[in-house]
């Protein structure tokens, strides 16, 4: 390693980073980064961006380790894993986004390799089929309860000069009509219980001392702003994980909307929360 990159400590069992590279990623806020590989992902209502997930994978894994995304959507986690020479497993319920992910992975040549699996089905059932202590890192973003179907939320404008959007999707979106999807659960309490069950099972297949990252934002429940982040931290701790911190992923290109004006204050969410946990 050159001096500009810092020195690599051979005792490092977490990742392949030098001390300088590691230090940069310990900041409590990151700025979201777009790249050309994101364009097709915006056909999904709530996409990951490749560069953002690459940062997490670099921080929490070494080459040839295995990553799991139980809500894989447009396949960004698998693409990021492929780019960094990690292996990837993804689950999702949606046939539409399964095909989108396959097309994105095929364009890179990853879909032909056994090390990159995208499996269509219910994630809890699929996680139960995985062996204990078989996954090195979990990174995912659960569907936000019913937020994508909320008439007053989730507006995305198509103003990008590069042909892909900033922010949330325009209009009302149903991610999946399958009753097993978290989006279709009747209450917010049911949503939290389902997450508790899933991540309790995920803990079984995650290797000891390894990490799980959940990307999520606060949102409104029954028209009330809700501390979703706090609820997710509590349920994960109850599952037996250690909470290791919240990184604010700043989305500075999202537009501002006059929600509530001129009668009441209503926040514009311009960040996601990357909640990091350790088994």
From TrEMBL:
Transmembrane segments: none annotated. CDD domains: AdoMet_MTases (cd02440). It catalyses: a 2'-deoxycytidine in DNA + S-adenosyl-L-methionine = an N(4)-methyl-2'-deoxycytidine in DNA + S-adenosyl-L-homocysteine + H(+). One of its GO terms (molecular function) is N-methyltransferase activity. It comes from the Bacteria. One of its GO terms (biological process) is methylation. Keywords: DNA-binding, Methyltransferase, Restriction system, S-adenosyl-L-methionine, Transferase. Pfam families: N6_N4_Mtase (PF01555). GO terms for cellular component: cytoplasm. InterPro entries: DNA_methylase_N4/N6, MeTrfase_CN4_CS, RM_Methyltransferase, SAM-dependent_MTases_sf. Belongs to the N(4)/N(6)-methyltransferase family. N(4) subfamily. This is Methyltransferase.
